[in-house]
Structures are given as structure tokens and as C-alpha cells.
Request: fold
Amino acid sequence: MSVVSPTGERERTSSQGTMRAAVFEGPDRIVLAERPIPGCGPNEAIVKVSMTTICGTDVHILRGEYPVAPGRIVGHEPVGVIHELGSAVEGYSLGQRVLVGAITPCGTCFYCQHHVSAQCAGHEEQWEMIGGWRLGNSADGVQADFFRVPYAQANLAPIPDDLTDEQCLMLADIASTGISAAETANVGIGDTVAVFAQGPIGLCATAGARLKGASLIVGVDAIEGRLRLSREMGADEVIDFTQEDPVAALKRLTGGRGVDVAIEALGKQETFQWCIEATRPGGTVSSLGVYGGKLEIPVEPFVYGIGDKRILTTLCPGGKERMRTLMEMVRHGRLDLSPLITHRFGLDDIEAAYELFANQRDGVVKVAITP
Ligand SMILES: [Zn+2]
Ligand SMILES: [Zn+2]
Reply:
């Protein structure tokens, strides 16, 4: 069966009826709506969602700051069970628990083969930047009872029996993204690392710096609860930037030089600038933030472009092997992100969850949503 979806594209839909889904209708309107259960193509899978969450990026979508088509089902962080498998997908069984990354690369295109899965061009006719981010962006997402997994063979990561859904929920996006900042910067054993902003992604970047062997990790934020979590995730020192100049404090902590690596995990001009200023000559700024508007590089702290400073950016590594390795880190006690889940909602209450999360009420860090 085929119907024209509200986004105007022809979608395969299943004959199995309808489901609940969080749909972006326009700025400031993400509503719970009834939508057809998606149908499954030969290279796809349908996953029944067991648990999902809301990302800061979904809030950008809600506010109209990041464009997605009206009618799009949002969400890109799913844990679930396989409900239907495409005829070409091998090695899985119905009912199997799986984690699917926020980025669902095809595994075979130019970008996937160059190890930048987030920029995957897929087999689609039109190439787009950050094309590997399909769920809840260029395709329907996962804040629903069911969702369709594109390129399922590359993206279904079986969950080991000894891991709970909640232990895996933070891995789809924020852990993969946050940890990648330390990986991209190639943090070495003994390096000094500052992480600007200790939201969910920044906290994972702090955990990533610890995993990579940094000697001194400094978390920067202004919210007390987040600075406490920062220590829990691996920070040795924390800086409340409303109480002291973070750049001066970081220089003081590093013998006047500045840090080897500064991670930007907020997406603001001010924090980006602090990162450049706080990095020693020859150091690295590793940027995760999603910047709105124009981003300027200040000349002096960049030593007029000849300070050997590097600025690197990462989106979010995806694919089943990335998810498998992250699950192994949790399983063997190297990574525990459960303290980040502060609130729990049913899917029926997702609008209230958005209200809480978007306005950062009640000390929320991440919410778990269970259909
Ligand atoms: Zn996200
Ligand atoms: Zn690809």
C-alpha cells in the first residue's frame, strides 16, 4: 500500500494499522499524532521502539532553528526490537533487541568508505551534507511506536542480554557524539582537556577525554548539578564561568600555556572563542556544537592563523559497529551514562517531556520515553 505522507513524499506504509508518533508540524509545534505504521523495503527493517529520548537538536527543530519538513516524525535515539525484516537483510531475527545509531550510514558510499559515516551520501539521487543523519531529519524518526531503519544490514546492533534498554539509550547519539570529540582531537595519554558546557553531549565528551587517557580534565558550565555530573563523568576540576574567567582559570591550571585540547559542546560564539583562547599553541579545538548564525574566529588567540592551532569538527559516528563498541564499553564497566537520565515519560506524555526538556526545568539532563 502506498500513500502520500504529509511531507509530500510517497511512503511505503504497512497494512498493519496506525501508531502514535511525535510529529513536527511547524515552529513550536511538535504534537503526538496518529500515523500509519511504516512498511519495510528489501534493505530495511521495522523496529518496535522500547525506549527513546529527546535531543537538544530536537529542540532546535521544535523552535524552527533547524529545518525539517513539516509532517516529519522526529527523534533519532532508539532502542527497540525487530518487528519486520526486509528480504535482503540477513543474520537477524524477529523480536531481537537492537540499538540503532542516530546516524544510519549505508556503509558503501564514498563517505562511508572514507570513515565519515555522518556525511553518508547513501544510494539516494540527491547528495546532501550530513546525509547520514536520516532518522528524524531527512526520513521519519523514532519518537513513535515503530520506525523504519534504512540500510538495516549496516545499522541494526544487537543488544547483549546483560544490558538493559536504559543502559544503551544514551549511546545512539550523545555518547557516540561526545566521545568522538576526544577521538577526533586524538587526545593522548597525559593531555590536558577542557570541555566547554556540560550538557548531555559535553558530559559524554568529558567521559571520552577520560577514556582517551587525559591527565587533567576540566568541565566548564554554570549549573551546579551539571558541574557535579561533570566530576562523576571524569572531570578533575570544574569551572563555573559565572564565577571566574574560564580562560584565565585554565591557563592557571596548565602552567600558563593553555590546554592541549578544548572541546566545544554548546554551539555558541562565546564558548567557541573561549576554546580558541584556552588552547595552547599547537593545541586542538574539537568542536561538536551546532552553531546558529555566523561563527567568527578571533584573530589574536588564533595567533593570526599561524599558532599551529587546529580546529576540527565532528558530527556523530554511526553504524552498528560503532554501537557495538559503545555497548561493550558499558558492559565492561568503562562507561556508565545512567546518571544522565533524570526524568521518565510515557510516549503519550511526550509533549510534556518536550516542555520540560526544552525549558530545562527541574534539573533535567536527559529524559527516557517509553512507548
Ligand atoms: Zn541528537
Ligand atoms: Zn554511505
Q: What stands out?
A: Residues 105-106, 109, 111-112, 120-122 surround zinc ion (ligand 2) (CB under 6 Å). Residues 1-10 have pLDDT under 50 and may be disordered. The CA atoms of residues 148 and 309 lie 42 Å apart.
